[in-house]
Amino acid sequence: MTKIKSDLYGYDAAIASVHGIIAGTDEAGRGPLAGPVVAAAVILDPHDIIDGINDSKKLSAVKRERLYDEIVSRAKAWAVAEASPQEIDKVNILNASLGAMKTSLDKMGVNWDLVLVDGNRNIKGIPDNRQVAVVKGDATSACIAAASILAKVHRDRIMMKLHEQYPLYGFDSHMGYPTEQHRRMLVMHGMSPVHRHSFCEGILSRAGMDLFDQQRLQ
Q1: Would you say 24 and 30 are in contact if contact means Cβ atoms under 8 Å apart?
Q2: What is the mean pLDDT of the segment spanning 145-166?
Q3: What's the whole-number mean pLDDT along residues 147-164?
Q4: pTM of the model
Q5: Positive or negative, the Cα torsion across 7, 73, 80, 186?
Q6: What is the pLDDT of residues 101-116, one digit of tens each?
Q7: Mean per-residue pLDDT, 66-79
Q8: Per the CB 3.0–4.6 Å rule, which of 105, 137, 188, 199 could disulfide with 118?
Q9: Cα dist. 138→26, 78, 159, 211, 217 in Å?
Q10: Which of 115, 82, 97, 92 is nearest to 199 (CA)?
Q11: What structural domains does the chain harbor?
Q12: Which residues touch 192 (CB under 8 Å, ≥6 apart)?
């Protein structure tokens, strides 16, 4: 599928002219060591253009917050869904992300004809003829970009609350991503209940081996 127009709403309009009502879905938080992965689904109103919608990674936190409020008040439908660290450990991050996308689409509770899925994988449980995977979709499609904003803001808010519960790890500064600070705190304090064991065990194992080597050499 080729991009018809340069703007994100133009891309969606070209797809909708062929397929009908389109939804977009995206996730935030595949890479962090802690916290949930969050997915969102959005159906935008093509007659109510929300200025500034773009890939959430290209927007400041202030702009994301403003656009979040506009999207939830002006979109035709939207929903968010989460997959917990425990679910991520159980089914792996890819399946957890795709599962959260499916849940967000189901939670909207409205009919759509085609869903544009950010990335290169289809969502299990949705017929292939009703979905299209769009690589770098959050920079291509307005409804995927809107979903990326909702997912990012929702997840950041979760991580700020988790920071209040577990302040030792500095979630408020890195949102759970594997920064040097976060890895250092993880080694010092071990995993919290909101850390992903499958992501952290390697870091802790390597840290333990390094400590063993240092002791052996002294």
Answers
A1: no
A2: 98
A3: 98
A4: 0.91
A5: positive
A6: 999 999 999 999 999 9
A7: 98
A8: 137
A9: 8, 16, 22, 42, 50
A10: 92
A11: 8-156 (3.30.420.10), 167-217 (no CATH)
A12: 34, 166, 168, 169
